[in-house]
Design brief:
The protein is 22% helix and 30% strand. By secondary structure, the chain is an alpha+beta fold. The protein is elongated and about 75 Å long. Bound molecules: uracil.
Length: 242
């Protein structure tokens, strides 16, 4: 809860002093009623505030780092009734939505926000934000195959940009390997298609990093709000590339 005059000031309409004056002049309505007293406490995300007959309520911009579990659709609503991201954000009053997407089966780092400008920049390939994936694959890729991933692979929709590819762990008994792949493109099912193209289909896929952001400290199915410092670091990073 915040003081009404502060919320009006933060909406960019007037200074705090001017906002107090507007309240005294009877120009401010809170949930349909004129407020004349100073210091009224309001919830900027829920209360309707009108100044001179115009609503000023602006949703506060919030961005969350979500650890998406497998078996969840990256949308706020699924016509087929499958579990979707919205179910994890029911306690959040803002109308947030996922930035970009992860496949139904893919786990890991997904930003969820109501900040349209940030969403545009994070998703736009021009900004080339690195995305790090850990892919458990069938079989054990040779160095030559990893080199192929690094140089670029010809997929149906064209060559992939150079990527980083490292072998993190090998299980000879199960004949599986864990790869770390860093890409900045965001084509549909790109990692799965790249791995399939070298003959090592993905068994399990997790996005572990997006730029400097990592999943650290966020359990599967949980989320944390990005700090103002992280938001400005992200915006600066994307600004520098525009
Ligand atoms: N690449 C994929 O194949 N799937 C994802 O969900 C993300 C990247």
């Amino acid at each position: 809860m915040e003081r009404l005059q502060k919320v009006i000031a933060h909406a960019g309409i007037a200074s705090r002093r001017k906002a107090e004056e507007m309240i005294r002049q009877g120009r401010v309505k809170l949930n349909g009623k004129i407020v004349l007293e100073m210091g009224e406490l309001v919830d900027p995300d829920r209360d309707e505030i009108m100044v001179d007959g115009k609503a000023i309520t602006q949703e506060r911009l919030v961005t969350f780092l979500f650890n998406k579990p497998s078996g969840v659709v990256t949308t706020m609503d699924d016509p087929q009734g499958r579990p979707c991201v919205s179910q994890f954000f029911q306690q959040v009053p803002q109308r947030v939505y996922p930035i970009g997407r992860l496949d139904f089966e893919t786990e890991g780092l997904l930003l969820v926000s109501n900040d349209g400008d940030l969403a545009y920049r994070v998703m736009h390939p021009r900004f080339e934000l690195d995305k790090v994936y850990h892919a458990l694959v069938k079989g054990i890729p040779s160095e030559g195959k990893l080199e192929h991933l690094r140089r670029g692979i010809l997929l149906e929709d064209g060559m992939t940009a150079p990527a980083q590819a490292e072998l993190l762990h090998v299980d000879k008994v199960k004949s599986e390997a864990l790869l770390s792949l860093t890409i900045h493109e965001g084509r549909n099912r790109q990692v799965r298609r790249m791995c399939k193209a070298i003959g090592h289909p993905v068994l399990q896929l997790t996005r572990v990093k997006l730029g400097f952001l990592s999943l650290e400290g966020v359990e599967k199915g949980a989320y944390r709000q990005l700090t103002p410092a992280e938001i400005s670091q992200l915006k600066n990073l994307l600004e520098a590339r525009s």
